[in-house]
Amino acid sequence: MYGLVRQLLFRMPPEKAHHVTLRGLDMAHRLGLLRAFCPEVPRCPVEVMGLAFPNPVGLAAGLDKNAEHVDALADLGFGFIEVGTVTPRAQPGNPQPRMFRLPEHGAVINRMGFNNEGLDYFNRQLEATRFKGILGINVGKNFDTPVDQAESDYRKGIAGVYDRASYITVNVSSPNTPGLRDLQFGDSLKQLLVAIKEEQHIQAERAGRYVPIAIKIAPDMDDAAIRFVADAIKATGIDGVIATNTTISRDAVQGHPLAQEAGGLSGLPVRDAATRVVAGLYAELGDQIPIIGVGGISDGASAVEKLKAGAKLVQVYTGFIYQGPGLVSRAVKAIRDEQLAGRL
Questions:
Q1: How does DSSP classify residue 43?
Q2: Tally of domains within the chain
Q3: pLDDT tens digits for 273-306?
Q4: pLDDT tens per residue, range 67-112
Q5: How far is the C-alpha of 7 from the C-alpha of 11, rounded, in Å?
Q6: Backbone phi, then psi, for 24, in 5-degree steps?
Q7: What confidence tier does 44 reach under pLDDT thresholds 50, 70, 90?
């Protein structure tokens, strides 16, 4: 059934199809139809970062930037939902067109640029939601905040969403905000992580509740960079790491007419790079700090692959666009079957 829906959606420009899809999900949710049309997702519970997840397959940030569709997305069987990226102030993002499909590669290029309505609007949407599951909130810096002042934006983001988050993700790896990815390296990363932990402790004392914080990194890292990130995470006590964001590499899509479009490439072409980063992080972190694997998950086997590389949870985004809600059920079933067989 989703194949027919996708044919219609793929006749529209990608960003328009995105909004049409979300509005359609909202309508089906309000009519009580959404769960009836989605495959049943088996329970496959796991505890990560002190949180109890009903299954290990989540929705990555970026699909619902303003937390406007949480209740509808919850009907699709995800074990957790991550919303955002939200920035302290509203911003329009980059000029359109800024999203491009590469169906031959099962991929998407986007240069959205953290388009969102800001923290105040974001929190008003969450006040209206009925969702009681695991909610991750992804925070970033405004495009016009200098990189050397990024700490202030991340502190504002953490403080602003702390009361509504099950966990918080600090996004330092989007390629679509100038200079942002520089925060993943050297003293910039160490200083930022120290500030993040300080703000986390401030908010935990205020709220009387500890909310874990993960950092989201890029797939475009060599082994030395992976070791550096892992050492910084261990030294500062960050609770988790999400690997990975989109890639700036075009090696896997060379020759495609859209290959030179600026932005981050996601989907099947990033699968191997993301798995390599997961495995590299796990070699350094072991089971001490959990890894959430993202990138190129399009079926059960690719979800299992991330867990075998060392991830404790996985997230989908581009695969969900191409495969539809059935991907969640297939991925959870594959993971459960591997667990029952003793291979995970």
A1: -
A2: 1
A3: 999 999 999 999 999 999 999 999 999 999 999 9
A4: 999 999 999 999 999 999 999 999 999 999 999 999 999 999 999 9
A5: 7
A6: -65, -40
A7: very high
Which residues partner with 57 through β-bridges? 314
Residue numbers of the domain that contains 212: 2-340
Catalytic residue among 166, 173, 174, 266: 174
| CATH code of 198's domain | 3.20.20.70
Q: Residue 140 has what DSSP assignment?
A: -
Q: pTM value?
A: 0.96
Measured CA distances, 204 to 15, 63, 163, 199 (Å): 37, 28, 9, 8
Strands (E), the chain: 46-48, 51-53, 57-59, 80-86, 99-102, 107-110, 135-139, 167-171, 213-217, 240-243, 264-267, 291-294, 313-316
Catalytic (active site) residue 188: no
278 and 311 in contact (C-beta within 8 Å)? yes
